[in-house]
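Methods — Computational structure assignment.
A single polypeptide chain was analysed. Its primary sequence is given first, followed by the predicted tertiary structure written as structure tokens.
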Amino acid sequence: MAATVNLSSTPSNPISKLPSFSLNSPQKTSFSLFPNSSSFPSKPFSHSLKSQFITTSSKNPISDLFPPNKSGPEGDILSSFSDDDDKPREECGVVGIFGDPEASRLCYLALHALQHRGQEGAGIVAVNNNVLQTVTGVGLVSEVFNESKLDQLPGEMAIGHVRYSTAGSSMLKNVQPFVAGYRFGSVGVAHNGNLVNYRALRAMLEDNGSIFNTSSDTEVVLHLIAISKARPFLLRIVDACEKLEGAYSMVFVTGDKLVAVRDPYGFRPLVMGRRSNGAVVFASETCALDLIEATYEREVYPGEVLVVDKKDGVQSLCLMPHPEPKQCIFEHIYFAMPNSLVFGRSVYESRRVFGEILATEAPVDCDVVIAVPDSGVVAALGYAAKAGVPFQQGLIRSHYVGRTFIEPSQKIRDFGVKLKLSPVRAVLEGKRVVVVDDSIVRGTTSSKIVRLIKEAGAKEIHMRIASPPIIGSCYYGVDTPSAEELISNRMSVEEIRKFIGCDSLAFLPFDSLKKMLSTDSPKFCYACFSGKYPVMPREVKVKGVGDSMDDGLNTPLASIDGHWIKGPPNFDLEKEIDPLYQESKI
């Protein structure tokens, strides 16, 4: 049976010292049925289970059920704040390690490197003598784990997860990895992504007697594995994944195996590396490999299952026939760390080129180029270099702001943004300033940033955005607002410029983005820019708690209950989404 230890959100003492890691000669026990991506079939990909729900629209149906609050908590002394205010949020990061005596400690360090992918929960499952042991908790990795917690996780195999919470008040029970026991043993899973047919699958399973403990779509995967008739365990995973629609990059552990799986479209990243002692490592980004001194080998291919055990080493097989990949472009725009390789491309180089394109296609006379830190910095460097204008730090970001703060009873305007960003008057005063940011979502934070820069004495403010306008919500593992809240879905560029109060505004042209990606362009998902979804959403997305921060909006009551609901029965999804796409081109 798997032992589970659930922690409270009370911070633990951080690890002061980690034992040294052994570095033995690499083992040579790998085997691959598909040594390269060209070995995979390219037939159209189909699902064996189809949902009955064909519903959604560019308008949020929740507002018909629960009217949004009209007044904000002006009198509240205790307020909520996110240092990623008014940005899409990546919901998860995953790690898997096989064959290292300090697997859980390496997993802990790798999760540190992936902390930007989720800050509200973390967990590790380690395997020792065929027993799965779990530690999970709410908070940052350094708050959840300490020496004593990691001492509870011995073994040479471990998986880990960091999470951005989007569902309800009972966050701890939704913190991954999940562990379940069934008649053939125990299995643990950590998942990055979203299943667009989650409600349909859950309803089917509940009709057949399944009992769910969480509101997470990941739990569906464990139930599907448990009821599968396939043998051996690997084929149970394949059987379960054939029923899934949407985005999933997952790592599994059993008593003797580590398994990595990526959905046929490859929406979310997953890479494989190896340490010098032969230990195999899977992670959402290569920055996690770098920290634990693992060498990057390759991506887990879309539609691939990789199995690692002592007997056969690394085995690879095709999950199912799959279409052309549709990798999330926002990994390169915002989510991933600049020092990562994602989808085989340098994130730093992508962002630098985005800035160069903006300088070429939306030039303006200016004295200084600044960035909205941190994700706008590399694009700003590219813009400044191409424009021949100095880059300077005009905004300083505080990295010590928590999610809750005490505000004075006399309300301070733009308090949340001022806590996070401080303008440098010596850089800005009397200057014509280009401000480079990665994206505009609702526009509320951008307007506050413009106001801060004006108050610091800037003569002109020219906003340059290193992504195309976002007009559609994401259904593949990114927490974005509903389409009606996306400012680019409601306003023209000129209207947005007036709303945020800058002198000029330009976005990265969509066509230029695709041209920059060259032959890789068809392999990316642009649904948030075009409204064209590679896998059609079958359930309506609902905002999660924490989605609405100090940005002038209030979270509707419906968000308290989580991710997805069935849509109205008469909606035709393609008819609803296509006008959204057509309007965006006008």
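Note: Confidence is low (pLDDT under 50) at residues 1-85, 166-170, 542-586.
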